[in-house]
Specification:
Elements lengths: L4 H4 L4 E8 L4 E7 L4 H12 L8 H4 L1 E5 L4 E2 L16 E6 L9 H14 L4 H7 L10 H7 L3 H21 L4 H13 L8 H9 L4 H10 L4 H10 L13 H17 L15 H12 L6 H8 L5 H10 L4 H9 L18 H8 L1 H6 L3 H12 L4 H5 L5 H16 L1
Parallel strand pairs: 1-5
Antiparallel strand pairs: 1-2, 3-4, 3-5
Length: 408
């Protein structure tokens, strides 16, 4: 008996369950080597009689594998699409693409966008040309909108003077400032994270170099290690940070003065030294010397500016590098000397601050004076004192009074 070759090598026949979106269901027996397009033709003949008369009918439909939710490719075979016996297929009509917008619709959309567009300066001037003009004192308006941080510095200078006078009236004034000095000695700002330092020294880095790296990188061990590796061959790697020498010297002066004010010292005739508290205030302030950002100092000095000029610029501009650079390139106003000027003590703002009970109570606390001194020299520390339970309420009241008077 003669058997056709294709019958001998025919693929396995699969029984597939097919569903249409109209709800029709039937079984299709198809060989593995049948293309998806041929299978789609058979499905259309079954559920949509006469549909093949339109050649576009096949391209307007698609078969989807129900389990994988995959759209089957027309040119691939059933085997290539990895369809198994008893799988379920969905016959779905493709969604027609949206028609392109007509010219009239495009014009309407553009018109709508133009209507929603904000007016430009010329349109505003044209619309307000017939309105009566009023003489506005722009100097006063600008003064009323002045920056709180700029004005805060003047307020702090004057409040420090008031706090010193109030604390000097306290019979336990010297004892209070012994406590104040102890607070300064415990200040974490000058400390180096011991754990971070130990990690770096255990890696083999010299301690002095590791301390410098940690201070430059805000106590981040990873960044400090990267800095140490990067500057390993730098001849200036062990040089002190710009401004650090003078700061350490100031700290030593302050430290040595701590013992000097441990108690009321008496002269040979048994009287207290003249203006002892004034000297104590000066010594405390020396402990609070301005700390310039080392990275900003290095960056600005690399531009060719002198170290002293750079530190002055950073002090005037609250350690902001970009603002300090503009100050150095500009008219250098305000000057460092201007920072020592306080607010007009007869102004309504200062009088309102002094009349506030919370501020009055805070000015009798030596910690408030220390906070004022610290914010004066290191404005970036303001957040720390705003969050402090003792000094935070005082700063909050000063801010509220300023904002209230500023609006009026």
């Amino acid at each position: 008996m003669f058997v056709q070759e294709e019958k001998i090598f025919a693929g396995r026949v699969l029984r597939l369950h097919v569903c249409s979106v109209e709800g029709a269901e039937w079984l299709e027996e198809v060989p593995e080597d049948m293309t998806v397009e041929k299978l789609k033709e058979r499905c259309l003949k079954h559920c949509v009689p006469g549909s093949l008369e339109d050649p576009k009918s096949i391209t307007h439909h698609k078969l989807i594998h129900a389990t994988s939710e995959k759209v089957l490719t027309d040119t691939k075979t059933v085997l290539e699409e990895n369809i198994q016996d008893k799988d379920v297929l969905l016959l779905v009509k493709k969604r027609a693409p949206p028609p392109p917008p007509k010219m009239a619709e495009v014009s309407a959309e553009e018109k709508r966008k133009q209507e929603q567009k904000a007016p430009d300066k010329d349109a505003i001037l044209k619309a307000t040309a017939n309105l009566p003009s009023h003489n506005v004192d722009r100097t006063v308006a600008h003064h009323n909108m002045r920056d709180f941080q700029t004005e805060l510095r003047k307020i702090l200078v004057s409040l420090i003077e008031v706090a010193q006078k109030l604390l000097a009236l306290n019979p336990d004034a010297v004892e209070l400032f012994k406590k104040a000095n102890a607070m300064l000695d415990e200040d974490e700002e000058d400390r180096v994270d011991e754990i971070a330092l130990r990690q770096l020294t255990e890696m083999g880095f010299p301690e002095s170099r590791a301390v410098k790296a940690l201070r430059l990188n805000h106590m981040s061990v990873t960044q400090a290690m990267e800095w140490l590796i990067e500057h390993a061959d730098d001849p200036t790697v062990d040089a002190p940070l710009p401004g650090q020498t003078s700061l350490e010297a100031a700290s030593e002066v302050g430290a040595s003065s701590a013992g000097a004010i441990a108690g009321p010292t008496l002269e040979a005739d048994g009287e207290e030294p003249k203006d002892e508290l004034t000297e104590i205030f000066k010594k405390i302030r020396r402990k609070r010397e301005f700390r310039p950002d080392p990275r900003a100092v290095i960056a600005l000095m690399e531009m060719g500016f002198d170290e002293k000029e750079v530190i002055d610029a950073l002090r005037v501009n609250n350690n902001q590098q970009n603002a300090a650079c503009e100050w150095l390139l500009g008219d250098r106003k305000p000057s460092p000397e201007d920072l020592e000027k306080g607010i007009d003590t007869t102004s309504p703002l200062f009088q309102a601050i002094l009349e506030n009970p919370v501020v009055q109570l805070g000015l009798t606390n030596p910690k408030t004076l220390l906070a004022f001194e610290d914010m004066l020299e290191n404005p970036l520390n303001s957040t720390q004192w705003m969050n402090d339970p003792e000094t935070g309420p005082v700063m909050l009241q000063i801010s509220r009074i300023f904002q209230t008077l500023n609006r009026t």
